[in-house]
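Table S2 (text version). Query chain:
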Amino acid sequence: FLTHTMSSLWPVLLLTVFGCCMADQCQLFPNTIIGSNNYKMITTPDAAHCCDACQADQECVAFTFATDNHNCFLKNNDEGRTTSNSRISGIVPGRGSSTWDACTGDHADLRFCDTSLTLDARLLDLVSRVNLSQAGAQLTARESPAIPELGLPSYYWGTNAIHGLQNVECLPTGQCPTSFPAPNGLAASFNMSLAKDMATIIAREMRAYYNGQYHNSLDTWSPTINPSRDPRWGRNVESPGESPFVCGRYGAAYAEGLQDGPDDTVKQAIVTLKHWVAYSLEDYNGVTRHNFNAVVSPYDLQETYFPGWKHLVTKAKALGVMCSYNMLNGVPTCGNPDLTAVLR
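Corresponding structure-token output:
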């Protein structure tokens, strides 16, 4: 199965620039949404007339035309791209302002772009340049908007990839991301090399979408490594199973396959382990993940909930963690200094 999948995917994996077409005034991108939000919606017979409307409006930078209902969405930005069926987007020449990669052009000499500095030094410089009015939007899931004055593009850091690349649709060529068996089924093989091979393919497809400027993300919200504790959880299909050992080994295989590529100096993509910690209820009998308090003994934390995480962070070098929605023993996991101390 994996051998067949790999051979059929090479055209996608090697693709770095996807084709687009040209209208009279706008560069058109089929099966794509460009720009965030919209300030005006009109109805036009086709994408060319949508382009004309955008061209005639000095505020308009980009547009998206819906082929199914002929709605034309005018936008004052060209931040971010994502694939979407029945959509054609375009940019008016000379009006686009966002860049796909940071540290290019006039911004290449900024201190946070200096790769000879430590990561901490670069981050401190970058954060010092972000003003308070911009900070909230940067921290709002799942996409951070561009900051043009710093040359920072928008970035989508919440791509789901539990068993295949999600939050995207097929390319204009008709090629689509591979969908693999769910984690509970894949882990039942007890062959963790399959999980590693799957994650490697997910990372390469993610790189292909990114290189083609069809999805501005190299960060996944995966894998889920919470042990299945109750069939009423609602997300058991995402978990490798009941065993903390299996969850840890499965997650490690996924993290290594996704992050580690042929170049040791560059990560293929980044995992975000979820959910830290004791997340075993989604929505049941009037209780939701947002108001659930998981009461867990110190013994059960050490024997059941921590082992998989420890293996993934210390051995597999996972680079991202998502806190869980619930409380743990009365304290929200996202604001729990004791849990943070354990993780670090």
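Notes on Table S2: DSSP finds ten helices and 15 strands in the chain. Confidence is low (pLDDT under 50) at residues 1-23.
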